[in-house]
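Project outcomes to date are best conveyed with an example. Our students and postdoctoral researchers have been running inverse folding experiments weekly, and each run begins with a structure described purely in tokens. The record below, which covers 158 residues, was selected by the lab manager from last quarter's runs and is presented without edits.
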């Protein structure tokens, strides 16, 4: 067991919601720090919040370790801690629950870790959350934006 806990800070942003979006991640383990960000041409805030958590977990090389994820997304914290996600999985997202693709991916990836979520107030006094917000908004405003294929396909099918 490593003496240092693995801390992950995440944030997502969308300009217009839906609109151009991005996510920002800061991973901290002892004195090691890594930042990850990416932007998408058309997406939603909730998709970016959730994708940030997924990408952060996918970036980890060690599995079955305790991970604390700090997020300002009540959507994510409540969905996991209040077991809404477990119910959505059991009912195959009946009732039109959004972001099925990302929730299924999170569910699969999350099984490899012992995850604790901590909700933090967004745009407040948490320097790491603020840094994630800077990364996410800069990514959303950047060039060469990626395509959120599932989201864009869902829009065109409506």
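After processing, the design step wrote out the following sequence:
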């Amino acid at each position: 067991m490593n003496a240092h806990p693995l801390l992950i800070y995440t944030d997502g942003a969308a300009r217009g919601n839906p609109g151009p979006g991005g996510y920002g991640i800061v991973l901290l383990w002892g004195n090691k720090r890594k930042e990850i960000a990416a932007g998408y041409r058309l997406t939603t805030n909730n998709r970016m919040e959730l994708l940030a958590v997924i990408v952060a977990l996918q970036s980890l090389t060690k599995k079955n370790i305790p991970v604390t994820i700090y997020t300002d997304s009540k959507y994510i914290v409540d969905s996991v801690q209040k077991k809404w996600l477990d119910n959505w999985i059991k009912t195959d997202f009946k009732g039109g629950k959004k972001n099925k693709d990302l929730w299924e991916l999170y569910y699969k990836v999350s099984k490899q870790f012992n995850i604790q979520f901590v909700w933090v107030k967004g745009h407040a006094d948490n320097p790491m959350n603020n840094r994630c917000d800077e990364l996410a908004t800069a990514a959303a405003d950047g060039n060469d934006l990626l395509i959120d294929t599932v989201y864009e396909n869902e829009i065109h099918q409506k």
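The mean pLDDT is 93. The chain has six helices and five strands. The training component of this project remains on track.
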